[in-house]
Amino acid sequence: MSILIIGSIGLDKIENPFDSTERTLGGSASYLALSSSYFGQDVSLVSIIGNDFPDKYLSLFQQRSIRTHHLQRSNDFPTMHWHGKYGMDMRYHTTELLELNSLIEFNPVLPKECKDREYVAIGGFMPKLQGELIDQLGDCTKMITLDTTRYWIENHREDLLDVLHKVDVLSLDNIEARLLSNEFSIAKAAKKILSYGPRYLIINKEGNGSLLFYDKQVFFSPGLPLLQSFDPTGLCDSFIGGFLGYIAKVDDVSLPSIKRAMIYGSTISSFSTEEFGVRGITNLSEEQIDDRMQEFIEMVQFEINIEND
Questions:
Q1: Domain boundaries, given as residue ranges, for the chain
Q2: In this predicted model, what pLDDT tens digit does every residue of 202-247 receive, in sequence order?
Q3: Integer CA distances (angstroms), 233 to 90, 169, 279, 305, in order
Q4: How many CA atoms lie within 13 A of 108 on its CB side?
Q5: Which residues of 280-308 are buried (b: 16+ CB within 10 A; e: fewer)?
Q6: Other CB atoms closer than 10 Å to residue 23's CB: what's the count?
Q7: HSE, side-chain direction, 13 A CA sphere, residue 196
Q8: Spatial separation of the C-alpha atoms in residues 104 and 69, rounded to whole Å
Q9: Which end of the chain has the least Cβ crowding within 10 Å, N or C?
Q10: Is 118 in a helix, a strand, or coil?
């Protein structure tokens, strides 16, 4: 099955209390594409880069067999830049600087090859443009996932609400869910957000697992306790990349498949947090992924007899 990734590509500066990095590959599309590529699917990337984008990052995508020939390049603007800073509590960050740069020129017309993709992941960027791109998709599409960020919720809320009824899965972190719903309780927030239109809602609890809300039910995928959590910037996008990669691999959008995909998403995203930017998900082996998956299975697997306990 084929996957279409649409989103932003950035050159980020990231700081935590222990170290920092500059001009590292980031942006929603980067995390989505790299994490989904581990499931052996045909992945195409639609985004825009600036006149300063290093060739080494294009080579990185191509080494993962990600199609990059639909990338646009701005001649007038540098690549989008985000500067984020984390404190000792890695669940929270402050945005020191966000420069959209080349992203303001992003206005793609999808070629037929992209319109006919079965599975589509749309990362966080201008909600109005997200909606226009969804309208270009063909009848072959089986699942659309969508992400957003605090910036778009705070500054383009109405445009975002207009998009949500067009998607199957909405992905947010817990802060974004509260901000979008104006509810503090995650359960109340989820109920309100589902009323906006998406069929499924995934709320990522910043390294402490992810919650899947659908209809009146909830499913929990745990977060794995890690020896090192270095940079959670791309955690949600890496999760969705792994999630959709698995869905596309089995070509099954049933609820049991979606639940299994939650565990695969958690597995891939756990690697993402261990290094700055996308470095943790650039060169994983099948053995590494299988071993990490087994850790998740052993952590949650148990037997219990309610009548006898």
A1: 2-301
A2: 999 866 789 999 998 999 988 877 756 778 898 999 999 999 999 9
A3: 9, 20, 12, 40
A4: 31
A5: bbbebeeeebeebbeebeeeeeeeeeeee
A6: 16
A7: 23
A8: 20
A9: C
A10: coil
CB 31 within 8 A of CB 45: no
Write out pLDDT tens, residues 187-205: 999 999 999 999 999 999 8
Structure-block tokens of residue 10: 């950035």
- Put the strands of the sheet holding 42-46 in their side by side order: 66-67, 42-46, 2-6, 119-122, 143-147, 169-173, 200-204, 210-214, 217-221
Quote the tokens at residue 232. Answer: 């959670």
152-170 burial, b for 16+ CB within 10 Å, e for fewer? Answer: bbeebeeebebbbebbbbb
- Comparing CA positions, the residue from 140, 146, 86, 100 lying closest to residue 121 is 146
Q: Concatenate the DSSP letters of all residues of 270-303 into one string.
A: HHHTTSSTTGGGSS--HHHHHHHHHHHHHHH---
CB neighbours of 286 closer than 8 A, spacing ≥ 6?
Answer: none
- Residues 2-301, CATH architecture: 3-Layer(aba) Sandwich (3.40)
Q: Using one digit for the tens of pLDDT, what is the confidence trace for 146-163?
A: 999 998 999 999 999 999
Whole-angstrom Cα distance, residue 250 to residue 119?
12
Strand arrangement, sheet containing 81-86 = 20-26, 10-15, 81-86, 93-99
Q: Where are the alpha helices (DSSP H) in 45-182?
A: 55-63, 112-115, 127-136, 150-155, 157-164, 174-181
Output phi, psi for 143, to 5 deg.
-155, 135
Name the pTM for this structure. Answer: 0.92
13: confidence class by pLDDT, cuts 50, 70, 90: very high
Backbone angles phi, psi at 228, to 5 degrees: -140, 120
d(CA 138, CA 66) in angstroms, rounded, equals: 21
SS3 of 30-42:
HHHHHHHHHHCCE
Could you tell me which residues come within 8 angstroms of residue 290 by beta carbon, excluding any fewer than 6 positions away? Answer: none
